[in-house]
Amino acid sequence: MQNILKLDVAGQPRGWITAQQAVSAYARGDVLYGVGAPLPPIMGGVQRLTGLRSRIDLQPIIALQGRIRSDFSLPLCNRTLFRRDDHRCLYCGQQFPRSELTRDHVLPTSRGGSDRWENVVAACRRCNWAKDNRTPEEAGMPLLAVPFRPNTWEWHFLAKERVLADQMDYLSQQFRALRAWAH
Description:
DNA Binding (I), subunit A; four-stranded mixed beta sheet; elongated
């Protein structure tokens, strides 16, 4: 079953929910509006008195009632990091499966570097080992791209393997730049 992009009342992406969670939100009356072409309907039971079967039509993007929160933090995990870097080692430039990539700290944590988007890149095991506890300049291994913190819309795209076209259209309108991984 497809995941649904959850928005706050201001239209800001606030996470992904399951279709079942979306059905519950519709049933509670928490859905303010939906965006995108309807998904296949979710059919419920048959009402004993009327003989009618219940049905809920979901949309791929829904805005839920509630307060607007500006403190949404973008979790950093290897899956989203590797997708941000297009599953490419940012030292040698080759693409690898996720299982063969590692998280490299541009400024090593042992030397004061932090575990944040702007200081981490995807690296193959060979390059990570060769760079060791040095900066790219010290190791003679220049970065092929500058690590960046994705904005909220970019992060929501990176967080999901399968994104529907309507969801992609909605999210990509707010991407900061043309991203190779967004095609």
